[in-house]
Amino acid sequence: MGTPEFPDLGKHCSVEDCKQIDFLPFTCDRCRLVFCLEHRSYIKHHCPKADKKDVTVVICPLCAKGVRLIPDEDPNITWETHVNTECDPSNYDKVTKKKKCPVPGCREVLTFSNTIKCRDCTIDHCLKHRFGPDHKCPGPKKPDSGFPFMGLLSKSRKEESKPNRAPAPSSTNWATSFRNAASTVRASAEASMTKLSSELSQKWQIARDGVGLSSSSSNGSTAQAEECPQCGAKFSSVTTLVEHVEKVHERNNQSRVFKMSIDVCPRCSKGFRDPVALVEHVERDHGGTSKA
User: Fold this and answer.
1) Which residues form the AN1-type domain (predicted)?
2) Dihedral sign (CA 5, 10, 11, 16)
3) 237 or 119, which is more confident
4) How many secondary structure helices (H) and strands (E) does the chain include?
């Protein structure tokens, strides 16, 4: 075996009936013996340890999952362990039922290589029906063009119309109370402005109608004092009273209404003029809670 230059070159086959010298022998990874090209497989040299690393997988007919059989264990015990622990019959339809093209009459099975998602309807189709006219694409969904707060208002109205309904979560209660408080503040501000406007109009009318009478009577007797309905200040003429109300109380009321109409988010300190917009912001960006 070998040559004078390479005395260890080549080895004999381990099969008794062969013993052929092979200069490129094969070593079995199970029994660690040397074999020639003809007897290198497990079956050819009848390897006694061939099943030690053998991988045998059986497909379960209940859940369609692969069950690996352990070489040193009884297959019945392995099967019983699988059925009692990890067998899920609901997985059978997910594995066996293949996804097909939704176009009527098309039986093409959708795989990784032939699936195209439509950009408009976002539905998977095969390559044959990937274009919109081929699968009668309805087109992209149209955005809601209605008033953005109509959904919120209708939702609040539905909640108020159902008194027997179970109480909503704390976030909804807080939003409802905040909306009611904002509506009350706005209503009181509008009522005060309306009252002030009516009083001003009455005073103007009195001033226009009795300007001649007040000028003639002022010469013979002391003029009647006019009292401001807001602060109680007294003036000698109606015109002076009207100018006082316009300069002092009307500007103060306008600035007061402007300050009351700006609401600040308790979480991010972002200001909103509309209380409904603030409620929608809290429910959308802060999970419906106002606690910091």
Assistant:
1) 7-55, 95-145
2) negative
3) 119
4) 8, 12
